[in-house]
DNA sequence: CTGTTAGCGCCTTCAC
DNA sequence: GTGAAGGCGCTAACAG
């Protein structure tokens, strides 16, 4: 009725049916429809059937905004993404995002993406089409250090919780969220505070590197070099420890066999060149596919072939690893499992805000390709 | 006051301040605060200042759900993502998603991710933690053909509009959205219906392939092969036409120089082998980096070096192109511009639901790397 | 089991 | 310029 006051423009989409529409059609009260949707067991079978029939017929689905307002939940999970790193092989995020979207959908959640605002919105934008106020408010209450983006979403109750992925950089967001008592789960263990009180899921990088190294040892290699990240990278040191462990276990020497550099192709290339000249390894284990590609570059320059002449193993099983000839053997993180565990933790957390749960550590797998080379023995 | 009825648990986050809180603190009515936020010019300077001071002090930000309910808008844009294609070099989506998130944030929108539900949610899930009702309703009103996911979001008013990216597959979602009069903009032109009535933005693939081909011609190549997609791919045929155009323009022959295959490394490898054996090209232009990597494989097998012996150009400037030695020359799509244009169109569309606007065609650029090889002349 | 009542927090009339 | 109602669509309490 009251809806007729707003005659639809010809091109307008039809406004979705409401609870009232269903109630009218089914000949029951609005509340009964609500119950049919949220507490079906409260209704008598025949009433329920009638209501469901009406729901079907109208294609009714509860209005999100109204439900959110009422229940104080958005069923949205915030995820801050980083810019794609050009020139690297890092593609973990891509797979992870997809897995997370998939998994959380099954749990009734959607993923809301946001970024650390690189540049603040234009202050003198001419066309305030979309709520200049919000932007302005967000700007004035300037985002605290690393928490850019999180704050606004939280204060405007736009999301129920966050998934935090960049826990390795002695992470400001985590500290901020924790202090703020904001619900979040982390992909990545809390390196700096082993008994941090938030749920987390991580992949055992040391185990991955050990897997890679052992694989090469079993192929017959004894001079296996490591190219990893700088010492201030927890992840880097963790992975490196796996290489050390595997080598020590078999009584192989690691002296002069390791290099710690930036995560770029160029660094990997340089490091590989130095190592080849001095330590003369027959195989490389790298902390990332990016670094492994650096090794490929050096081999390429010297007329050596990955796999045939020198074995190379990378980390993360990127698309690069999968497509480059002759295939780059690489450690793969089980991001689908990570996503599943995170969503599980998320559900627990949202049900019981004080939930912490045990940190979950998953084991990566090794994907063997041509760069491993043939058995030497 | 009424809030005190719910004493916060120790670990609970503090409930965000509301309009009323601000009003009380500033000593004005709720409406005045609302105006201060949405129509600042209506207030007297001193009142405005006082209200803003209170807003600052409390860190107030309007509650999303309430605002959404009232304004019938969610300020959310839906984007359906596809699973990462393992074994390919396709990484366009990654960059695009980031660009879109960034751009739309500046316009006051967030991106909501969803997937074409591969598997329906378990019907007998034991723990209905999150609103089993919604899932159930969504299931019963079974998603129409290709519109999986779109329907629910639309009916529940969870998003204001969609960005559709897979317009090449004579796309069910597009047809469905159009018929439904749902607001959406497309990354990809409407191949099958040139005067489709929806806003779109696309990148000129023919121009890209022409750029690549001309680049090789200028290096001195005359026998340039094409490896593209099957004939039923509009995008593939479009890109191919750019190669044809460039070749014809310089009076070069294309006979026997082209191959149309699936977009996989294996297909590219086979195609390259055949072409090398029969047409003896000195250069390849490929419809994708994936196919280009197939060429790399073949060259690798034959002891030939990309760049030095045979030139190769790919398409999409993936991370693979950027990291593989000696670097794969590739056509790069300006996804940041695409995102910007899409958001522009989105704003127009949401302001005027009948907005169609001219399709926007952007031009790609060529990123030259080692695989182009030296000048032959 | 069903219906009635009362808001969630906000914005849009409309008076003042 | 400011304040007082009303209601967006839904669900949580009760009443019957």
Task: Explain how this protein is built.
The structure is a homodimer of 377-residue chains. Chain A has 377 residues and is an alpha/beta fold. The first copy, chain A, has 3 domains: 3-70, Orthogonal Bundle (434 Repressor (Amino-terminal Domain)); 76-203 and 335-362, Rossmann fold (3-Layer(aba) Sandwich), CATH 3.40.50; 205-334 and 366-372, Rossmann fold. Helix content of chain A is 42%, strand content 14%. Chain A has helices at 19-26, 30-38, 45-58, 64-71, 92-106, 132-140, 150-155, 172-179, 205-219, 234-249, 265-278, 289-301, 319-323, 335-351; strands at 76-81, 110-115, 161-164, 184-187, 200-203, 224-229, 258-261, 283-286, 311-315, 329-332, 360-362, 365-367. Chain A has a 6-stranded parallel β-sheet with strand order 2-1-3-4-5-11, sandwiched between helices. In chain A, strand 6, helix 10 (234-249) and strand 7 form a beta-alpha-beta unit. In chain A, helix 1 (19-26) packs across helix 2, helix 5 (92-106) crosses helix 14 (335-351) and helix 11 (265-278) packs across helix 12. The first copy, chain A, is elongated and about 85 Å long. Residues 1-11 and 119-144 of chain A have low confidence and may be disordered. Strand 2 of chain A pairs antiparallel with strand 2 (110-115) of chain B, so a sheet runs across the interface. The structure holds a DNA duplex (16 and 16 nucleotides).
